[in-house]
Write a structure and sequence with these properties.
This is NmrA-like domain-containing protein. Pfam families: NmrA. InterPro entries: Ergot_Alk_Oxidoreductase, NAD(P)-bd_dom_sf, NmrA-like. It comes from Dendryphion nanum. The longest helix is centred in the middle third of the chain and has 16 residues. With about 300 residues, the protein is an alpha/beta fold. It is built from twelve helices and eleven strands. Helix 1 packs across helix 6. A seven-stranded parallel beta sheet has the order 3-2-1-4-5-6-9, sandwiched between helices. It is globular. Strand 4, helix 3 and strand 5 form a beta-alpha-beta unit.
């Protein structure tokens, strides 16, 4: 990639990270193509037809992938993990490669540490799906970067109903996480999509700057909106019943994540973590957002 890309193809732009990746790519001078299942869907900030063109595509439909690449003329694409894919997206990546994509940025997970082929990355459901998808991309022959963010600040939206009512039920409320924002993740992805490096990084870990508990996060929201939020600690059984629509293997992975970050245990230590904290500034050129700053920006959602 010796020259800055003219066209960047963003799959799934209605997702928060993809949306911010599209905005960042455009800010950096790229012509952005939005690959969507429904091209009529409204997306905040991406309505300017001069900057953002839309093309119908589904990452589970190889023909639509090839059509989208052909119409956009893009050589560079942003992609994300499709949980329903039965071959960990091998068919999707094959279609991207055959259509002419030469570089892809894959939104992966901090749960994948080191090589995705290492056995430790296949012990739990969430890490395994991301690791297998990374392997499939690697085997496709497309040059790539996997972006591996940790715990999203937007996960708190899963408690939005309780936040508005003033009482939230939590499993392991004192487990601590980094709360990285989708804005920062998308900014890094957009920077990578428009870089000029001949040797892009294989993986980029991302973490937020503050490691705080769910309880502390809700206290910050309560302070921002000016009302009290009661926290009710849930037993594992009650928590699983509350989220009964989720696959058991996903709930098992989440339980392991909560347990791994219940003090004094933490995944936020060592060289990978220190690099992950620095990578938002390193790649986007901007200081990362704090959780308080993110809450203030999204205050209307919590009122």
């Amino acid at each position: 990639m010796s020259n800055s890309p003219t066209n960047v193809l963003i799959f799934g732009p209605s997702g928060q990270v993809a949306r911010f990746a599209a905005l960042e790519s455009s800010t950096r001078g790229a012509k952005v193509w939005l690959a969507m299942r429904d091209t009529s869907k409204k997306i905040d900030g991406l309505s300017d037809d001069a900057k953002f063109s839309r093309v119908q595509a589904d990452l589970l439909n190889p023909d639509s992938i090839k059509d989208a690449v052909a119409k956009s003329g893009a050589k560079i694409a942003f992609v994300y993990v499709i949980w329903q894919s039965k071959d960990y997206m091998r068919t999707s990546f094959k279609a991207l490669k055959e259509a002419g994509i030469t570089y892809a940025v894959l939104l992966s997970s901090y749960g994948v540490q080191g090589s995705p082929r290492e056995e430790i990355n296949h012990r739990h459901f969430v890490a395994k799906v991301h690791a297998e998808t990374e392997i499939a991309l690697d085997e496709s022959g497309i040059s790539y970067t996997t972006v591996r963010p940790a715990f999203f600040s937007s996960n708190i939206f899963g408690h939005l109903e309780g936040i508005k009512k003033g009482e939230v039920g939590l499993f392991s409320p004192t487990s601590k996480f980094d709360w990285i924002t989708t804005e920062d993740i998308g900014a890094v992805c957009g920077a990578l999509l428009t870089q000029e490096s001949e040797n892009p990084p294989k993986e980029v870990y991302l973490c937020g700057q503050q490691v705080i508990s769910h309880k502390e996060a809700l206290q910050i929201i309560a302070g921002s909106v000016g009302r009290e939020i009661q926290i009710k600690e849930l037993t594992e059984t009650a928590w699983r019943e509350k989220d009964a629509t989720q696959p058991p293997e996903l709930m098992d992975s989440l339980k392991g994540l909560f347990e791994a970050n219940l003090p004094p245990r933490t995944m936020y230590e060592g060289e990978i973590y220190e690099n992950a904290k620095a990578n938002v500034l390193k790649y986007s050129g901007r200081e990362p957002m704090t959780f308080e700053g993110w809450v203030d920006r999204n205050k209307e959602a919590f009122v």
